[in-house]
Amino acid sequence: MDRQELADFLRSRRERIGPADVGLPAGSRRRTPGLRREEVARLAFISTEYYARLEQGRAPRPSREVLGGLSRALRLTDAERRHLHHLAGEQPAPPVGPSREVRPSIVDLIGRLPQAAATVISAAFEVIAWNDLAAALMEDFSAVPRRDRNLVRRVFLGPQQAGLRLYGVSDADEFARNSAQRLRAAAARYPGDPELAGLISDLLAGSAQFRSLWASHDVADQPTRVKTFQHPQVGPVTVNCDVLDIADRDQRLVIYTATPGSPSAEALRLLAVIGTQRLDVPG
């Protein structure tokens, strides 16, 4: 355990987080940037005295539970969480839930694909990054709550009309089956994640189709390579679907491209111009 490095690291992480970042009132009497020690302690469910001793380099080695609480309280990234554990002389525990942190290089990559719609999907089927054409083809993910960016929630609990289900894709039933299988495998990898458990509970309660698929205990995955979106402005858009694994984050990069010279390629070019504006809604 490197007490001084641990103390300096905790202090630096605490000072970079504002009260508003964790849902606390800012107040008007803050003399230093970031959170107060007592606020971090409260968020991490440890005593203020013990946290103060950690920042002073005088505390005994923190347990895995304490390190987990500090990681959540300080909003640490996966890399920072691992570093915190190493400083404390502990092997990093596996992440509690699927990573939502997308590498900047991946975000930059999908932004450089102007003729392709691209998204990054977490192991829990949440859309966690997207480019402009993906927003135009499917929906403006920045305009909906995080809960509604989950594709498995949408396919099982969203609008079930044929033209609306999962953006009108031609393979909605096949996606539903494959997503249930992948979700079961994810649940085995992240057994302690309350958010993933809550998602599965909602799906079991709200969808007879999901209950049937879940009861099969299948974990195979055969993604569709070609699918058609029924878009309200440009009509059917048939695309090739390529899925690339981002293994270190347990994420997938999904890229939709149309055959060059096809009507769907023209439709994607039109969508790149239209963006997320709705042409069927009076201004």
Polypeptide structure, described:
The model has no long low-confidence stretch (mean pLDDT 88). The protein is α+β, with helices and mostly antiparallel strands and 283 residues long. The longest helix is centred in the middle third of the chain and has 18 residues, at 172-189. The protein has helices at 3-15, 37-44, 48-55, 64-73, 78-87, 104-111, 132-137, 151-157, 172-189, 194-206, 208-215, 263-274, and strands at 117-121, 127-130, 226-231, 235-246, 251-257. Strands 2-1-5-4-3 form a 5-stranded antiparallel β-sheet. Helix content is 43%, strand content 12%. The termini are far apart. The protein has 2 domains: 3-87, Orthogonal Bundle (434 Repressor (Amino-terminal Domain)), CATH 1.10.260; 104-274, 2-Layer Sandwich (Beta-Lactamase), CATH 3.30.450.180.
- Poorly predicted sequence stretches spanning 5 or more consecutive residues: none
How many strands, what sense, and barrel or not for the largest sheet? 5 strands, antiparallel
Overall number of domains: 2
Spatial order of strands in the largest sheet = 2-1-5-4-3
Computed Rg: 22 Å
Number of strand elements: 5
Strand content: 5-15%
CATH structural architecture of the largest domain:
2-Layer Sandwich
User: What distance separates the N and C termini?
Assistant: 62 Å
- The CATH class of the largest domain is identified as Alpha Beta
- Summing up helix and strand content along with how strands pair, one would put the structural category as alpha+beta
Query: Would you give the CATH topology of the largest domain?
Result: Beta-Lactamase
User: What is the arithmetic mean of pLDDT?
Assistant: 88
